[in-house]
Amino acid sequence: MRRILSYAAMAGILALSATQATAQDQASVEVRTEHVRGHIYALFARGGNIGVSAGDDGVFLIDDQFAPLTPKILAAIAEISDQPVRYLINTHYHGDHTGGNENLGKMGTVIVAQDNVRVQLISRPLNRSGGWTDEGAGIGLPVITFNDQLSFHLNGDEARAIHVANAHTDGDSFIHFKGANVIHMGDIMFNGRFPYIDVDAGGNVTGVLAGYDRALALANDQTLFIPGHGPMASRGDVVSNRAMIQTVRDRVAAMIADGKSLEEVLSAAPAAEYDEAYTWAFINAAKFVTAVYRSLTGE
Ligand SMILES: [Zn+2]
User: Fold this and answer.
1) Distance (Å, rounded) from C-alpha 80 to C-alpha 83?
2) Cα 33 to middle of ligand 1, angstroms
3) pLDDT reported for residue 13
4) What is the pLDDT of residue 28?
């Protein structure tokens, strides 16, 4: 019980700190645009990386960071396209990927997500930590939801959103642009960082690995990957991030099979060799190992 409480507390702190940081620092945040390939761009600012498909059919957006950043995000999109944002997909419910929903919903953007994203956004007001107002809770919700897969036929390409069960959360999708050969991974992938696995919202390391495998099965050596966090990734980057997760997962699984407690697993430091390279502001080796342990034990 103590562990569950501490996780709930951590989630709350994450949400609060994200909101506060946004309020304080929004003026200084710059949106950096990277042309990925063809009609696809990536926007990097604060929070989850944004994917943009821009063309004659309008703008199709993947994730929208925090509410106060919407004007800057729209300004960056205006440099790419004079078309409106017609569709938005949320890769999952977290506030740094859905915070702009209310603003975009008011502009007439059609919001799409996997079924569980809508459920999470309705049932956990704390999760609308990206800056929604209470009044905007309705218009910021996804109006089209899907259970497994959904295709967007826009801008001369087919973008297929593919749900991966119980990965970073219970509602993750990655988006595969077949023509452009680009995959937006959502938070299934943190490039060069220990992944955050939201176990309390149905996340599980096993699903994260399955998500990597499903994306890799659609990819070739030319595929370009937009991770949920971190810089653009090649196929090789995806493979090496996956290998780190698999290695730690296997070590923790062996210790669990030996009857080790979480405390004993943590003191054995099964992710020590990755600590320096992969630790970042939110997730260090101990937090990642704890999420792996909880994933495998159900505790
Ligand atoms: Zn996330």
Assistant:
1) 9
2) 21
3) 37
4) 86
Q: Tell me, in angstroms, the distance from the centre of ligand 1 to residue 162's CA.
A: 16
Interval between CA 121 and ligand 1 midpoint (Å): 13
SS (H, E, C) the chain: CHHHHHHHHHHHHHHHHHHHHHHHHHHHCCCEEEEEECCEEEEECCCCCEEEEEECCEEEEECCCCHHHHHHHHHHHHHHCCCCEEEEEECCCCHHHHCCHHHHHHCCCEEEEEHHHHHHHHHCHHHCCCCCCCHHHCCCCCCEEECCEEEEEECCEEEEEEEECCCCCCCEEEEEECCCCEEEEEEEEECCCCCCCCHHHCCCHHHHHHHHHHHHHHCCCCCEEEEEECCCECHHHHHHHHHHHHHHHHHHHHHHHCCCCHHHHHHHCCCHHHHHHHCCCCCCHHHHHHHHHHHHHCC
Length of the chain as a residue count: 299
Over residues 173-203, the pLDDT tens digits come to 999 999 999 999 999 999 999 999 999 999 9
Determine the structural domain holding residue 275 and report its residue range: 2-297
> What separation in Å is there between the alpha carbon of 258 and the centre of ligand 1?
32
| CA 228 to centroid of ligand 1, rounded, Å | 7
Whole-structure pTM value: 0.91
